[in-house]
Amino acid sequence: MDDFGEILDRELDRWQQAGKIAYFWLRDDDAIEPTTPLDRLLELSGTFSVPLTLAVIPARTGEALGDRLQREPLCSVAVHGWSHRNYANADEKKQELGRHRPAEDVLGELKQGFDLLSHLHGERFIPMLIPPWNRIDAALVPHLTGLGYRALSVYGPEKPSALPLVNTHVDVMDWHGTRGGRDPQALAVEIVARLRHMFAHGGAMGLLTHHLVHDAAVWDFMSALFEVTVRHPACRWTPVADLLQAPEIPV
Ligand SMILES: [Zn+2]
Predict the structure, then answer these.
(1) What is the chain's mean pLDDT, rounded?
(2) 127 CA distance to ligand 1 middle (Å)
(3) What sign has the CA pseudo-torsion 171, 173, 175, 178?
(4) pTM attached to this predicted model
(5) How far is the CA of 93 from the centre of ligand 1 (A)?
(6) Which residues contact 212 (CB under 8 A, 6 or more apart)?
(7) What is the distance in A from the centroid of ligand 1 to the CA of 100?
(8) How far is the CA of 228 from the centre of ligand 1 (A)?
(9) Which residues neighbour ligand 1 (ion) by CB within 5 Å?
(10) pLDDT in tens, 1-11
């Protein structure tokens, strides 16, 4: 992992010399209940003091997850759709929050998800929607504020939106190939590309993980990334709530 560390260090050194801080945040999707992989994720986050936002599927979760997270001060919770059910046709990309159903049905579920998770998680709850498969019909977005949502998180560079966006930019999983972890060097190159964009334009670097399907390569990558980044003075892993409140970090 030497090259991997060097690639990241070199870019972060540039930030340090410029007196700038690179903000990172960690989003992990599809949490429902306490599991061994979730324990592992929480342990990793705790070991390196890396704050974590779990995208929780409201229709499939319950009090057990709320109880488990009570002793995890670094963990926050956001709304991951309603049931994570795919309503798209076979020839379309998967989507729960698309145009396949009346908008009032979809928005009704998103309100239910907001209310349920804010009740189950209290102070850990972030009023942020994370659409399953990172897709949502743009016509729904202006209605989310009325349901209580204050932010939206999808994948890729932030675009103009009716609601503030705090996106993820690097996905550790090779979904279309091995369905395991991606090559660490390729990931480091992608992280550096995002950092270069941030250096000029602001924003944060969102890392996307899926604890239930990680293989050993993903866990190793996460440990190595945290090891390199947390000790670098120009890097700060940040709770997503702080990104939402920080006007100096344009999102
Ligand atoms: Zn998901």
Answers:
(1) 95
(2) 17
(3) positive
(4) 0.96
(5) 13
(6) 30, 35, 37, 38
(7) 18
(8) 28
(9) 29-30, 132
(10) 568 899 999 99
